[in-house]
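Put briefly, the fold is written as integer tokens. One such record reads:
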Amino acid sequence: MACFVPKHLLLSFAFSVSVLLLLPVAFSVGPKDAQPISYHGGPLTSGMLKVGIVWYGQIPRAQRKAILSFFRSLNTVTPTADNIPQVATWWNMVESYQAYAKSGAGSSRIAVKVVNEAFVPGYDYGKVLIRDFIRLLIPTATARTPDTLALIVASKGVTVQDMCAGSCAQHGLIDNNTYVAVGDPEDECPECAWPFVASSGKQGQVLLPPSGDIGADVMVKLLAGGLAGAVTNPMGDGFYTSVRGNHVYEATSMCPDVFASVEVPVDPVTGGSYNVVGDKGTKFLLPAIWNPKTSSCWTPL
């Protein structure tokens, strides 16, 4: 659990060029009853990761822009004057899992490229995307290009299977195709939208989104978690741990609601909180990742 600084402190520093808010160290073994994440022998994603996206429903431009910027940032390093960590630094931790796979997984670098975008603005499969409908959307996302991860991004008002029922972002394998599916949970599932939306199940101050659009930054946060899971546990037999055999924790779900260990910057213009910067200086708040080397939760800051 992470604690955040009250909003009045954010306002009092609003005119500072570089505002840093002190947070308590929040590193632990994750869920109390879970064993450390371990490798179960399955294949990992490596080399070139091709991504095909289907925008399902009325996706605002700000959300599409933020998600595409996040993808560009994974392999882009543009150092800042104040040495804020990069999105690529976060991605390096995801890539590091390959070194801990017993069988090895080839090159540790995972280059990510969006190879296709498709639009389904008319809610062709309704506003509840169960697994069967995700299956139908995968060829649209990938344009039937082999070895391409399908990303289904659903608009506000669309329920993605299991949202608010144990998982905020979906990833898995359908018909030998890997996929990630995310929605905008602002209204339906505030606990998935925290820390940008108040939730009765969360403790800590609600933060302002770095892009200025809550849905955009929430979906990037959820996508980051789903993508990390799709790389480190693509087929369900990679890196994970389970509790009593029925609840699986992966790279980011093992470290819920943790974003920084010491300090988190606040944009002096927008007041938005972030822990990494990316392509063209775009700011993001990305989730903590389980570090397989130290068996602890890790954040860029």
Remarks:
- The chain has one domain: 42-298.
- The chain has a mean pLDDT of 85.
- The helical segments are 7-12, 61-73, 87-95, 131-142, 190-193, 214-232.
- Residues 42-298 form one domain.
